[in-house]
Amino acid sequence: xxxxxxxxxxxxxxxxxxxxxxxxxxxxxxxxxxxxxxxxxxxxxxxxxxxxxxxxxxxxxxxxxxxxxxxxxxxxxxxxxxxxxxxxxxxxxxxxxxxxxxxxxxxxxxxxxxxxxxxxxxxxxxxxxxxxxxxxxxxxxxxxxxxxxxxxxxxxxxxxxxxxxxxxxxxxxxxxxxxxxxxxxxxxxxxxxxxxxxxxxxxxxxxxxxxxxxxxxxxxxxxxxxxxxxxxxxxxxxxxxxxxxxxxxxxxxxxxxxxxxxxxxxxxxxxxxxxxxxxxxxxxxxxxxxxxxxxxxxxxxxxxxxxxxxxxxxxxxxxxxxxxxxxxxxxxxxxxxxxxxxxxxxxxxxxxxxxxxxxxxxxxxxxxxxxxxxxxxxxxxxxxxxxxxxxxxxxxxxxxxxxxxxxxxxx
Length: 411
Prior knowledge:
Blueprint: H1 2-24, H2 26-30, H3 36-68, H4 76-98, H5 104-131, H6 138-165, E1 169-170, H7 174-187, E2 193-197, E3 204-207, E4 212-216, H8 217-222, H9 225-239, H10 243-250, H11 262-269, H12 272-306, H13 312-324, H14 341-347, H15 365-393, H16 397-402, H17 406-410
Parallel strand pairs: 2-4
Antiparallel strand pairs: 1-2, 3-4
Helix pairs in contact: 1-3, 1-4, 3-4, 3-15, 5-6, 7-9, 9-12, 9-13, 11-12
C-alpha cells in the first residue's frame, strides 16, 4: 500500500506540474511572433509558477494523503521526497518547450548537480540548527565556528572544488583563454582561473574571493569575440572591487546564518527570537541587494569604458537576456541584485530601439491554485492536531476514581 502511495505521489506531482505549466505557458505561446521583451515578460509568471510548484505541490500531496488515508500513509518525508521528484520531472516539459535546444541528458545532469549542491548546504545548515543546544555553551560557539568556517571555505575555493568534483567545470577553450588574457592585461586585473560552467543558460560569473571567472558554453555559442570581451570586462570589474565592497558582499551570508542560532536565542528571549531573526535577515537582504546593484552598475560602467566599438557591451547584454528570455523590466516586488536591463542599457549610453516594456507580472493562476489547495488542506490538518493535543492533555477521570485515599483504603 505504502509503495503504491509513493508511486502515486511521484506520478501525481509530475502530471499536475506538467499540466499546470502547460496552461501557464499559453500567454507565452500567443506572444510567439512578438518582440522578445514581450515574450520574456509573458514567460516570467510561468517561471514563477514552475519554481513554486516544486515545493507547494509535494506539500499539498502529503497533506491530502494524511487526510484521506490516516495511519496508512508513508512517513511524510518519503511522500514529500517522492512528490518533489515528480515535480522536478514534470518541469522537464516546460524547459523543453521554452528552450528546445536543451538535450535531455544535459538537462538531467544540470538538474542533478545543481540540486545536489543546494541540498548539501541545506542538510548541513539544518543539521547544525538541529544539534545547536538551547543554552549558550562551548558547543554553541564550536557549532557556530564550524558553520562560519564552512561558509568561508565555500567562498575561498570550496565552490570551485565542489563544482570540479561533480564535473560542473571544464577547462576553457583556447579562444576564451586568449580573450580573457587580452582583457585582463588591458585592465591590469589578474585572473586566477578561467572555467567553462556546464549550464544551459548564457551567463558569466566572477568569484571575487578566488579571482576565478566562469563562462557557460551557451554564452560562447551565441556571442562573437568582441562581445565576450565586453562581458569579460564586466566580470573583471568585480574582481577589482575594493576590500570594503567585498566585505559588504560577505553580509549576504548573514541573511540566513543567524537562523542557525534560533534555539539558544528562543531559550533566552522566547518567541521574540523569530521576530528578531526576521528583522535582521530582512535588513541584511535589503542592504546586500542595494550594495550588489551599485557594484553591478560600476562593473557595467567599466565594461563600457573598455569596449573597442561603441555599443558592444550593450549588444552583449541584450543578447544574453534574449537568449535566457529574462524580462527587460522586472516586477517591482521582484527587484534583484541586478538593475533592469532597460535601465542598464540607458546607463551605458545605448538607448534601446524599443519603448520601455511593462514590468513583468509576479502573479500566476497556477501559484494561486497551489496556495488555495494548501490553505484548504492545512486547515483541517491543524484542527485535527489541536483536537488530538487537547484529548491527550485532558485529565483521565478513570484513573482519578480508581485511586483510593488513605482513609478509604483503611476502610
